[in-house]
Design brief:
The complex is a heterotetramer, with 2 copies of chain A (about 280 residues) and 2 copies of chain B (about 200 residues).
Chain A: H1 13-22, H2 31-37, H3 44-103, H4 109-117, H5 124-157, H6 159-177, H7 180-185, H8 188-193, H9 197-204, H10 220-223, H11 227-250, H12 256-273
Chain B: E1 4-6, E2 15-16, E3 19-21, H1 28-34, E4 47-50, H2 56-64, E5 68-72, H3 75-86, E6 91-95, E7 112-117, H4 124-131, E8 135-146, H5 147-150, H6 156-167, E9 171-178, E10 186-193
Parallel strand pairs in B: 4-5, 4-7, 5-6, 7-8
Antiparallel strand pairs in B: 1-3, 2-3, 8-10, 9-10
Helix pairs in contact in B: 4-6
Classes of the chains: A mainly alpha (about 280), B alpha/beta (about 200).
């Protein structure tokens, strides 16, 4: 009896939610009968009513917490991945320079470093050079693994955003905004220039034109549209991404029609019939 | 003739006169029923549904069954499942891991008539063994095994054989059936607890 | 006969040096007798004279090349180590932030990250966090290994500098100068402010006092001297370091008396009897 | 009585009337001679010195011997060695790896009277085997083995035993002697080629 979810509730409805979420019992029992017997419910049907209310409330709360946490993990993962990219490039440059001097070769880039990392070193200096190249290789592998993780997590956190923008771009938008909720609350014009903060500040200080797009430029719908129509394409895409972010945050179910609408809109813009 | 239940529509399924078409292409249990397996599933049964996802199948189950406990681990589909629950007072959602039955043993009642299991994870047979504690002695396990969830590199037949062998330790297998053409490389299993249900 | 070092020399004395340095013979023979027989030398004593000249020239050239190469490897190693230090700190900060959010802890620093790296992750998000922390740990280990290597190599490249300044500071001075030869050619006043280039430029532009010391501040003789005498201590140390660099570059043997002289000089300065 | 040779001073050793004190604390060969080992080393001998370092010992050897080939792999000490060579026309420096005798086989003559070996590296006995090619049939190997260079974790006596065993394949060991109190955990070995010298 002590293990039943309803065993020790008080007046506060939150106590039922808490009991559902954190209780445990190895062995199930005939809880409906026990609930009636103990006076928790007047009859079985009354018990099921209370159970329904409590389980729905508990699931809603748990889902919301888990998703909050997930979108923050996505933000951390994207930032960690960006750090790895930067750091990997920096160390790769140094490793190529060093290896080039040690092996009397003049080559550059990650491919060269990966090749050096696979060499059998001869002597203590070469051992250090090769070990340094191996560090770069390890960072590159970690970066790739983290990118896969981001691409797996993004559709769970933001299904509509990931459907419209590819999981990786969706993750990057969420990271730039600092979270799904913040992204959902931004006007679509802000979403359009997310990632182009430098250009935006230059514009606000009066010495640059207003940027037409930020990170969403990497989307095929913008990049693949001819330059004079890109502003319209970026605006259309940002509009739909804003809607997607709001659905993802406030409701969460996938709306495939968003993508169909956007496709149609972009086709119209590219056909040249777009408003300015 | 087509399978249908009475209830609020959930996933854009065709409806007529309050009846909702139960699409066997979108539901493993629907396919079992469509293919005529003897599931023993009857109106008013107490059901534990493991792997409820966004509620497509469990919505039909709850339209027919009595108390229906829906366990799902991923938060995203549980949001959809919550909508399905709104109009179904006999459907109880649980955001929980089916591999950890003690985490819902204080909520799900004992002696249920049916367990429907459709989890896409390795160790699907083990999940069935762990949850046998909720079944009545004459209850039914309606299990669908997805070969690719166990091991993508092995032949589905080998995967199924191993799963059935694991299952036999606590269940008596009453029937099996491949689910094509509705679902490829899925095996449906109908089983009943062998001894008194594992505790 | 064809294998003898003197077998195919021409008029150019460099050809003898080349033959000594790059020739090979599995089986030694009575080279002095063969040299006389072949007419290369008038007699054995004439042969040994030529051999002495050729081996000394070849050894001198080989030593100088090997050491040139070694001092450049030292420069690369120090720079690689600096990169690792920077990168490790940057990633450690990110890792601590991420781990703190995932494990609901608010701790910072490398120690926390190393502790996270040792954890058994539970679930896919934790697996990424722990793997990221492991990357930081690996970089830290590589950095430490590289530092040991630098400390081993420095005394071979610059014995006097390493004797006066600890191998690691010696390596850093060589790296800041870009090589042992460049360091040896710098006036002692420049050695004194190596590593304080920012402060020096600020001074040259007229808006800062002249820096009293650069990286040599890390030397106990500067740091351990009271502030009003530090300028004198830095000047004395830089003077001796310049001499050490020149001996290391032009001659190479260790002069322990340099250190004794410096110790005496610093003692005098600290005792307060130093000239301004 | 004290060991001394005639020549330019090299390492700050005491001198008198053109004689330089040969310090057995600074030289393994000096210690062998001081301890009265029968080295067979005579004035005018042809010598190959492996591990010449900065020339402390080889300077004394060259003061006494005939043609003296000094092999050293580390560039730094060879700089000092070059200074030692300046006043010794019979001393020939070679920046080379004693484990690669073919890299100086075109310079070092055959049928030498003595090899002095003092290399601080693992496989000291193997180096002696490799260089046997330079020795006359009645020549002498004067080897000093540093236990810690082979394996710091093992007992010196075990290290020495194994080295001697390796050596026996090409050399007949004529005598051994620990070098304390001058050098700790060093074993001096005097040996002569067993068969015609290895090629």
């Amino acid at each position: 009896m002590e293990e039943a979810w309803f065993a020790e509730l008080d007046e506060d409805p939150a106590s039922a939610t808490r009991a559902i979420r954190s209780g445990r019992a190895q062995k199930p029992r005939d809880w409906p009968a026990l609930a009636v017997e103990s006076g928790f419910a007047p009859d079985k049907s009354g018990y099921y009513e209370s159970l329904h209310e409590a389980t729905v409330a508990a699931a809603r709360e748990a889902v919301s917490e888990r998703e909050q946490a997930d979108d923050q993990q996505l933000v951390h993962a994207v930032r960690a991945m960006d750090d790895l990219t930067e750091v990997k490039n920096e160390l790769a440059e140094r490793a190529a320079e060093w290896a080039g001097s040690q092996f009397s070769e003049s080559r550059e880039g990650l491919d060269y470093v990966l090749e050096v990392a696979a060499r059998e070193p001869d002597g203590p200096v070469e051992a250090e050079v090769v070990a340094f190249a191996e560090s770069v290789r390890d960072l590159e592998q970690r970066r790739q693994a983290l990118r896969s993780f981001v691409e797996t997590l993004a559709p769970a956190v933001a299904p509509n955003l990931s459907n419209l923008a590819e999981p990786f771009l969706a993750a990057r938008l969420i990271a730039l905004a600092g979270g799904l909720e913040t992204l959902a609350k931004k006007p679509s014009g802000t979403v359009q220039v997310l990632g182009a903060e430098d250009a935006l500040f230059a514009h606000l200080e009066g010495h640059a034109p207003s940027p037409k797009h930020g990170i969403i430029f990497t989307h095929e719908y913008v990049r693949g549209t001819r330059p004079e129509k890109r502003g319209s394409a970026a605006r259309a895409l940002a509009g739909k991404l804003s809607i997607a972010a709001r659905i993802d945050h406030y409701r969460g179910e996938l709306h495939p029609e968003l993508k169909a609408d956007l496709e149609e809109r972009i086709a119209t813009i590219r056909a040249g019939g777009a408003e300015q | 003739m087509a399978l249908a239940t009475r209830g609020e529509p959930v996933y854009g399924e065709p409806t007529a006169d309050g009846w909702r078409r139960w699409d066997p292409h979108r539901s493993k249990l629907g396919a079992m029923l469509e293919l005529g397996l003897d599931t023993g599933f009857e109106a008013g049964d107490g059901v534990l549904y493991l792997g409820a996802a966004s509620g497509t199948t469990v919505s039909h189950v709850a339209d027919v069954a009595g108390p229906t406990y829906a366990v799902e681990f991923a938060p995203r589909p549980v949001r959809d499942l919550l909508t399905v629950c709104e109009s179904r007072p006999n459907l109880f959602p649980l955001l929980a891991d089916a591999r950890q039955p003690a985490s819902y043993g204080h909520v799900v009642e004992a002696n249920l008539d049916v367990i429907v299991q459709d989890v896409a994870t390795t160790g699907q047979a083990t999940v069935a063994l762990e949850n046998a504690r909720f079944l009545a002695p004459d209850g039914r396990l309606l299990l669908s095994i997805k070969a690719r969830s166990e091991d993508v590199t092995r032949e589905p037949s080998a995967v199924f054989e191993e799963a059935l062998e694991t299952l036999e330790s606590s269940y008596e297998v009453l029937g099996t059936r491949k689910l094509d053409p509705f679902h490829e490389d899925h095996l449906a299993v109908v089983a009943t607890p062998r001894a008194p249900p594992a505790e």
